[in-house]
Amino acid sequence: MNNSENMLTMQELLDNEEQEMKRIKTGDIVKGTVILVNDNEVMVNIGYKSDGIITKSEFSSDSDVVLTEAVKENDEIEVYVVKLNDGEGNVLLSRKRLEGLKVWDDFIAMHETGEIFPVRVVEVVKGGAMALYKGIKGFIPASHISMGFTKDLAEFVGKTLEVKVIEVDKGKRKLVFSRKEVEKKEIESKKAAVLDSIQKGEVRKGQVKRLTDFGAFVDLGGIDGLIHVSELSWKRVNSPAEVVSEGDMVEVYVIDFDKEKERISLSLKQVTPDPWTLVSSKYNVGDVVEGTVLRLPNFGAFIELEPGLDGFCHISQIDQKHIAKPSDVLSEGQKVSAKIIEIKPEEKKISLSIKEAQGGETEAAEDYSDETPVNTVEDSINE
Question: Where is the composition biased (Polar residues) (predicted)?
Fold first, then answer.
């Protein structure tokens, strides 16, 4: 075999190898095998005469990506051809651009179907925050990052949120996410579950969410019910804050509900017995009891024996000597001892005598109690 024949054979081998090599051009999408990974780049064998290089910036839009964790040697990946020669004889590849091309079609489909998916919030920008999904950044307006008020958007950075696409424009590369829309759907689902299962007369657990002058709103797990101020306690309540605070976990009694109007009426006091129903078993005529002066109208004193249970002491039964008005010898909030001289549970009336408890004589209860114009705190206030 002469030299020319040898040379021909070598040329044929080179030609055959060239034919076996892939023919690629800028913009192609090809598959390759990872042959090397370090902190700054990934080298990929794409079956071309030169290996391909993916720089960290071309691997993902996530600046925090760790290449050695994202891919491993011998992984097969799909890449986008950016340039056939990067100046050093390598093919410049991009995974980020490939994902970008594919994911926009996904975003369009997800927008149409209302699909919910996770994104990671990466930075706060004017008017909202940027979140990352498959290497593509989308905008979350401040008004759509949560159903509730958010004072500082920075608290969401680094967190993963479930979102929906609410606006997408592939041509303009515009993408808008919403967490609020997802929360709305979650709340509606929970609300429906509560309204479908709630029963009058049952006791449920909830959390106090908001206090108003007229009562307290309690979250029952998706829908709020209202405890009117009159249903907070068996005793008189001037402000809901006297009984509950926002954030309190409470057990409430379901008084009524309207599924169509999505309204639920609750009671806190009805979880415990009305103290008047237990009067006959706890108190007897002749007992000397301790109480707190609640109110001093001109004709007597209302004395609280226990929360929700008040007795009345007529002015003639306050002191051994004659007094012009109850406030001459008593003050609101004062602790006193009094003797029970009459009990009428059905009328929610207990007649008391302070002077009897002190050893003085009392007039017959009928001499004054039936003529007394007011026998409860509520009656006194109304008058």
Answer: 372-383
